[in-house]
Amino acid sequence: MDFQDTPEEAAFRAEARAWIDANAPKHLEAELKRASFGSSGLTSEDPVAAGKAWQKKKAEAGWACLHWPKEYGGGARTPIERVIWNQEEGPYAVLSGAFTIGHGMCGPTVMAWADEEQSRKLLPPLASGEEIWCQLFSEPAGGSDLAGLRTRAVKADDGSGDWIVNGQKIWTSGAQISDWGLLITRTDPDVPKHKGLTMFFLSMDTPGVEVRPIKQANGASGFNEVYFTDVRIPDSQRLGDVGQGWKVSLTTLMNERLSIGSGMSTGFPELFRFCMEAEIEGKPAIEDSAVRTRLAQFAVKQSGLKYTGMRAITALSKGDTPGPENSIGKLVAGATMQELAMFALDIQGEAGVIWSEDSPQRGRFQAMLMRSPATRIEGGSDEILRNIIGERVLGLPGDIRVDKDVPFKDIPTRGGS
Amino acid sequence: MDFQDTPEEAAFRAEARAWIDANAPKHLEAELKRASFGSSGLTSEDPVAAGKAWQKKKAEAGWACLHWPKEYGGGARTPIERVIWNQEEGPYAVLSGAFTIGHGMCGPTVMAWADEEQSRKLLPPLASGEEIWCQLFSEPAGGSDLAGLRTRAVKADDGSGDWIVNGQKIWTSGAQISDWGLLITRTDPDVPKHKGLTMFFLSMDTPGVEVRPIKQANGASGFNEVYFTDVRIPDSQRLGDVGQGWKVSLTTLMNERLSIGSGMSTGFPELFRFCMEAEIEGKPAIEDSAVRTRLAQFAVKQSGLKYTGMRAITALSKGDTPGPENSIGKLVAGATMQELAMFALDIQGEAGVIWSEDSPQRGRFQAMLMRSPATRIEGGSDEILRNIIGERVLGLPGDIRVDKDVPFKDIPTRGGS
Amino acid sequence: MNLDFSDEQKQLRDQVRRFLSEKCPPAAVRKILEGSSAFDRDLYLGLAELGVLGAAIPEEYGGVGLGDLELCVIAEELGRVIAPVPVSSSIYLTAEFLLMSGSEAQKACWLPKLSSGEVIGTFAFNEGQGRMTPDKVQARVEGGKITGTKAPIADGSIADFAIVAARDEADGISLYLVKLDDDGVSRDALESIDPTRDQTRLTFDGCPAELLGGQGEGWHIASVVMDRAAILLAFEQLGGSDRAMEMARDYALERIAFGRQIGSFQAIKHMLADMYVSATLARSNCYYGAWALASGASERPVAAATARVSATTAFQQCSKNNIQVHGGMGFTWAFDCHLYYRRSNALALALGGLSTWESLLIERMSAGNTESAA
Amino acid sequence: MNLDFSDEQKQLRDQVRRFLSEKCPPAAVRKILEGSSAFDRDLYLGLAELGVLGAAIPEEYGGVGLGDLELCVIAEELGRVIAPVPVSSSIYLTAEFLLMSGSEAQKACWLPKLSSGEVIGTFAFNEGQGRMTPDKVQARVEGGKITGTKAPIADGSIADFAIVAARDEADGISLYLVKLDDDGVSRDALESIDPTRDQTRLTFDGCPAELLGGQGEGWHIASVVMDRAAILLAFEQLGGSDRAMEMARDYALERIAFGRQIGSFQAIKHMLADMYVSATLARSNCYYGAWALASGASERPVAAATARVSATTAFQQCSKNNIQVHGGMGFTWAFDCHLYYRRSNALALALGGLSTWESLLIERMSAGNTESAA
């Protein structure tokens, strides 16, 4: 039990800190600290351009993709070193938002399934931020049922071996700024649903690919729909065998779990600060016993997630593989943030309805209120996460599956009310 | 919208009040007011004997079984009159505890399924409290899955037409004081589970019937196990056709819902009184804002159940049949009472651990704490009630059933860990 | 004993529901959300014509002369369709202030116009952050002129006049009727979590203010009227809860995942059951509120807080879980789920937030109205 | 950075777990529940022999000389089996009081005997109903003799001596060491929700009382020691949470209803998932507490309250839902579910209930230890 750095870790931290101090775009720091809920906070510069510049600098000095091997442009650092880097990078980490999916999920999938030549071609520009990747998995009909996807890839009838893709993807973060996409398709609807899938990568410039932003409930547009109309993909851009797409996708999804940090935020630190300043009937809100009770329950969730993250890092540093138990982070953080936002607005009284720069903490709690429903859904809904914990952590039986051994085309697509 | 009696109702209330005033066993009133959680509160007299005496008095004056027809010993009163009677009977209603199941569930089932001669023989002594009935439905292997019962009835091989019953029932309230039992058995294990059941009634004196009390987690013993060893039942004591037992049992279970009153108690009135008296750091607990918040949430549950009960009575008085929407009473009351008890103990501080006559309200909150887990299970667990609301009130599809079209004997009985 | 609306009241409900389903589909709400104007004037005038605005206003003041129960029925329907109109400001509050405390002249002047929708009134109460307390009232009237800032004020951009709570010359709190077309009034529209209802900052710089009700009685009058309005808002929340629950139910029946209707999964089914429970408790508590409102029972303060706490809880729960049942689609701008989520969280704060009403409920119960606890 | 126990500490855990699984099966707990005696003396002496009681007591006082982290590991294991022994009274509290404030003579006299299990100590703090505050301390020492009543006192029937908080002659609060075999002591056993742990009323009628620690420092010393003990109790709660969750999980795998393992129903599966979440948060918060306990960090008061709030919540949730998963059988005396339910609710109140620790947590965070909030 020890929160101190080892001498080696302390040396690494000093090195990282010195380099960041000398190289980070300090003129952006104040803006970046305002980042919230999908917005980088940047207004004085284009966030993507600023992100690419920072990533390039990091790559040149060996600080990019610390978890990747050096031959692909990575830093080959230990898990603890990555954590230390993240702590030191602080607000500048927001600049890497556009690369999260490429570095965390697409890159490792390419590494695992592409041939060496492709990896050496595709990965270094991804590591250095020259190229951005997105993940084309979810579909309107899919939702939690990821394998229920309907985007079809069929062999071209011209003998070229190329594939022709038609269909629609949804919830694609960053599609509008991506150079490459990792695309899962259905190549055989006559077999059960997990068996007829095939994975490809493709340039987002390929003719027939159309990206349309989705306006979200909170007014932001972080996600996109991507339409495919007779999009031609050479067979050489296939990852894994035909029909092996589900297995390939699991590499991607498992890597999602590897991106552990210090636990997700519940919004508690902000609420605590707010309650130190706000008043209830003339006294500091923090002295109100109802506020204290709620705060205490939020506090132990925040700190529980924080130290769960540290326990995971400890395990990682001892060589353990992070498992499904890390599903608790988003499950707890999403629901807590939503409750917490409602509570913060309640303390603001009728003024809580106002969402402006003049609101407490520049309207952060209003933004949390409006963003948190998405947190409870994206990347695995609360219900899917509880299934994962129940089944994969606690070993309970799966749900009864009616779609398991049925040819995909025979699975119903619409209920009746 | 009106909480006042109509002139007819007021007249009925006056009549009931006058009769109760003249006839009730007033010397028991103080003790009966201490009733809690399965205990009648009576110590000076045998509760069953006292109950029988009161019931007999009521029957002689026409106040027994107000919802039954007169020919079976009932009072043939309207739903509103029953509610008024219940309000006026007050603490003396506790005396009728032993008859609840017989009057509310067994009697109506006999009425619906027995022939006229049997009804005229069986029902009047039940109405007048001379005889007590119990309901022999649940089994160890059954639980929420009521139709999964295994108690077997087979035709005697002596040509008498009698049935021979072997098996075990559980959670039988009042079995040790009952004269008659309503018994559901499996007569055909080769058909799907709901189809092979048959209902009987029998004297609890029948040879081979053995009653053993179950000690509960809270130390009380309100329930029993009942063992059947080669118990012989004449075919004339069959209710409904062979194989029709499930349908007969639904009559019983539907009648459970008819027993609506002013909503179940959550324990809120007691908690409110306690918070008026208790102190937190030298000030009345009721002035503490954390206490207020919790109390308010409990209060709206209590009052919500109370007025939901009144809405149901209003509907009943207009001729509507009470439906599955009444499932909310126990669902809300059980969970609320458990939370509320924990909260009351918390206010008591370390002294809350003590469960004695010297504890606040004679240990009522400790008793609630220890009894409430059963409330969340008995007569339909929280989970079953949510299924009922989801499916029968909101019209959502049933759970996927793996046991539906399978011969009963082929359904697995044990999982593996 | 009868805890239900009468057949006539149910007919009124059906009539209003039919009208609103035609005149106030989600597309109409979206128009306001997306900023075409601050409220739906056609809808508002249509409601006036239908007699909805004047339902509880006596005939002598141009109203229909029905009662409070009818207004409850109407409020529930307005809440179901989250109507983008200033009924709460102009009718539940302003008209009630006039009826309770207005002089004959004030009533005769304003009530017919409120009833016809010709003018809109609002209640300018809030100042600053947090729970309103008497010391927060800083707007001040001297020599018949009012000075001060009130925010946020619902429908402040569109109201023709406001009932304003302000310090009088004796430093007590009194209510004043202030016309908002005066040159001394500035109105700044505010961004809010629910743009389907206008929120505005009103600044008064020496505008004529006419006393409403007795001097120094402002806080008391406001408390009574806010209690009454709270019951009506609870009915709006109830309507919203029911609609959000129905949307979720319908989607759970229609949407297939893993080859099944998602409503067949207990996670979804039980979430819906809990929404139903919460909405049902709210309905029963609202009916209790309606009874207290209409009968003038001494329990009204307790009943108002009960209805309000219960309905706020229900609407927030139903609207957030409606999004959850819809999954990703529920979080798109294109689906209507967020309209209900926005409204539920805005209504939760109107006339004071949940914690305020929770505290009031217990304070009132402990002050003597304890019989309702039993 | 390393937030885990060392391999040696894990070996200790395994050793203690093996010992307890043999010596403290549920049947042993039931013996105490059903009144055969006030605690399991054989088990207690066995724990002493194993070095468990003296784990954190220095060798010079007859202990094993390990540290606080080892005691955390042990506490978790005792909690897992809800051991019916007075370790919390005698070790987490009494031994700590002596170590922190005892004179050399007091330490030399008592610590070896506590470590060997030869004597049992307890902390006599509580008076009356509700949260303990300094003004509730009414027991009084005059001329070296103590008079007053303390209840409920855990293990009061079986303790040989007690550390008693009482008014000193300057009306301050001081701690006194009082032998309980004195004629002036009466002990009345009290019925409790968890009969597997003794609760007693101690009445002192002029018994000899020996000052422990500085005069007037009683409240301060007690606060520090109770914080330390709270972390250890949180580990007991953590062990209990895990075991209750495992019992529920095992039953959900074994029990069939509707032809399926009940764990395949989402209602049960998700209930178990929520138990896991709660127990996991508690584990992480307990580790934070363990770090603060062992390192003497200034964050200890915050960490203690954090661990305690989290573990209390987890154990209550896991033990009540364990019964729910078991259905009717879970509510029988014969099944062990109620043993955990009882203990969880008793531990929730020990050293002050949830609301007390919630309030302390935020008070402490706002008093400056705010870095832990980030």
TrEMBL record, chains A, B:
Keyword Flavoprotein: yes
Domain Acyl-CoA dehydrogenase/oxidase C-terminal: 243-394
Alphabetic keyword roster: FAD, Flavoprotein, Oxidoreductase
Acyl-CoA dehydrogenase/oxidase N-terminal domain boundaries: 6-130
Cofactors (names): FAD
Pfam families xrefs: Acyl-CoA_dh_1, Acyl-CoA_dh_M, Acyl-CoA_dh_N
InterPro entries: Acyl-CoA_Oxase/DH_mid-dom, Acyl-CoA_Oxase/DH_mid-dom_sf, AcylCo_DH-like_C, AcylCo_DH/oxidase_C, AcylCoA_DH/ox_N, AcylCoA_DH/ox_N_sf, AcylCoA_DH/oxidase_NM_dom_sf, Mycobact_Acyl-CoA_DH
Entry GO CC: plasma membrane
GO molecular function: flavin adenine dinucleotide binding; oxidoreductase activity, acting on the CH-CH group of donors
Domain Acyl-CoA oxidase/dehydrogenase middle: 134-231
Recorded family membership: Belongs to the acyl-CoA dehydrogenase family.
Alphabetized PANTHER family for the sequence: ACYL-COA DEHYDROGENASE, ACYL-COA DEHYDROGENASE FADE34
Protein name: Acyl-CoA dehydrogenase family protein
Protein species of origin: Hyphomonas oceanitis SCH89
Upper taxonomic lineage: Bacteria, Pseudomonadati, Pseudomonadota, Alphaproteobacteria, Hyphomonadales
From TrEMBL, chains C, D:
Domain Acyl-CoA dehydrogenase/oxidase C-terminal: start-end pairs: 216-352
SUPFAM superfamilies (alphabetical): Acyl-CoA dehydrogenase C-terminal domain-like (SSF47203), Acyl-CoA dehydrogenase NM domain-like (SSF56645)
Keywords carried by this UniProt record: FAD, Flavoprotein, Oxidoreductase
Domain Acyl-CoA dehydrogenase/oxidase N-terminal: 6-118
InterPro entries: Acyl-CoA_Oxase/DH_mid-dom_sf (IPR046373), AcylCo_DH-like_C (IPR036250), AcylCo_DH/oxidase_C (IPR009075), AcylCoA_DH/ox_N (IPR013786), AcylCoA_DH/ox_N_sf (IPR037069), AcylCoA_DH/oxidase_NM_dom_sf (IPR009100)
Cofactor: FAD
Gene3D superfamilies: Acyl-CoA dehydrogenase/oxidase, N-terminal domain (1.10.540.10), Butyryl-CoA Dehydrogenase, subunit A, domain 2 (2.40.110.10), Butyryl-CoA Dehydrogenase, subunit A, domain 3 (1.20.140.10)
Superkingdom assignment: Bacteria
GO molecular function: acyl-CoA dehydrogenase activity; flavin adenine dinucleotide binding
Stated family: Belongs to the acyl-CoA dehydrogenase family.
Protein name as catalogued: Acyl-CoA dehydrogenase family protein
Originating organism: Hyphomonas oceanitis SCH89
Top-level taxonomy: Bacteria, Pseudomonadati, Pseudomonadota, Alphaproteobacteria, Hyphomonadales
